[in-house]
Amino acid sequence: MHQDELTQRLAERIVHHHKKMPFHDDGSKKRQKRCLVALAGGPGSGKSTIAEAVADKVSQQHVKCQAISIEGFMKPKSALSEEQLKKRGAIDTFDGEAVVNMFRTLRARGPGHELRVPVFDEEKSDPVPEGQLIEADTEAVIFEGIYMLADREPWRRIEELVDEKWFIHVRPELCRERVTERRTSKGITKTKEEALR
């Protein structure tokens, strides 16, 4: 399936969920809940690209949608052991409880309430608390991250807090090629060989 067709279909799923959300009883024509999506896939699978493209298509259908990376929930370097620093990006170097609590808060509050969440600062290579805003008038949010659908605590609790769960399947060799390019272009590694290792 062509990516444009895929993103259109996924956008339609979000709009469909949004239309099924009940309105508040106060006559304000505001929905009681946001449509929440958990999007997972391996490194280099295209999570961010697809999430942004889908969010744009949803917003074009008059349902304000944001794409949010959970990379900001990575624990700061200062909170990691020497062993964890060597494998930074592994599941135990993320604050899974904070991710689950964010979903619970969004489920409880719904549209009309804003929420600040952490963002990852590429230059500092560390998270910035409350660095990005889920705006009050946002009606749908696509959260993307490697471990969004992990079958272990506390990550597995996300499943009951979202309306849609998507996983991107990409050939491993393509992902490896993309991550290699990313690591060399950002200066994380000096050579392609180092990045491949």
From TrEMBL:
GO MF, any single term: ATP binding
Source organism superkingdom: Eukaryota
SUPFAM superfamilies according to UniProt: P-loop containing nucleoside triphosphate hydrolases (SSF52540)
InterPro entries: P-loop_NTPase, PRK/URK
Pfam families associated with the record: PRK
Annotated ranges, domain Phosphoribulokinase/uridine kinase: 37-178
Protein name: Uu.00g144070.m01.CDS01
